[in-house]
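Morning F.,

Quick status update on the modeling queue. The single chain you submitted on Monday has been processed. Sequence for confirmation:
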Amino acid sequence: MRTASLPTAADLEAALREALAPTQLEVIDESSAHAGHAGANAQGRGSHFRVRIASPLFAGKPRVARHRLVYDALQVFIAQGLHAIAIEVL
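Structure tokens below.
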């Protein structure tokens, strides 16, 4: 996993795979679509991501708890300035 200031979709994917052992996972960098919005950066990458994920660790948990697991797994990137994560639990 990279520790540079701008995460990539691959960085987020690696962290999620390690923490949540997903059965389905898609991470999409949507940063370029948010140019000029709050939290966007001049590079047009690494600030806004969409995560589509299914994990056996989600079983029996309400939506908020599932999202919290995703946020917890990505905390290092949030601390580095990741601005937005759209989560779709599958």
